[in-house]
Amino acid sequence: MVRNLAKDAVSGLVATAAMSAVMVAGQQAGLLGDQPPKRIARGIMPGSRHRPKPGEGVLGAVTHFGFGAVSGMVFGVLAGDRPVRVRYTVAYALAVWLASYSGWVPHLSSLPPIPRDRPGRPLVMAAAHVVYGTALATAMNRVRGRPRKRAATPSAPERTGHPAGVPG
């Protein structure tokens, strides 16, 4: 069980890295504003939730990857020994996003709930969580040693009694 938790945590870290790439792209496109993990870190640090603080970027990144690793472990426990399906990890990741950004995130940070957020951020964050879910399933199946589906191979020709290549 501990070995599986470690593998699932690594899968969560890999998925968080993929998700973070989407978030950086969204920020560079001007859709995201400040990174949400940075804003959440700012909210839990002493002082105003609305003023930048030294170290908030590092704390945000560390907690973001920590949350991603723990989320991977939680999904791993829920999945048990069953094969991990992308549709379930994507649904799980979107549920985590909806619950977090409609509940505890607005209470801890200066980020508003999803319906009142800036227009581009929910789109970027939903896409980032879809990427997290997809990467989580891929990473979990790989580190857990699940065989990938292989392309169907053509079946052997029926035996005709003739040597190969000789028409019957």
From TrEMBL:
Lineage: superkingdom: Bacteria
One Pfam family from the record: DUF6789
Membrane spanning stretches: 57-79, 86-103, 123-140
InterPro entries on file: DUF6789 (IPR046739)
Region of interest: Disordered: 142-168
UniProt KW keywords: Membrane, Transmembrane, Transmembrane helix
Claim: Transmembrane is one of the keywords in the record: yes
Name of the protein in question: DUF1440 domain-containing protein
Taxonomic lineage of the native organism: Bacteria, Bacillati, Actinomycetota, Actinomycetes, Streptosporangiales
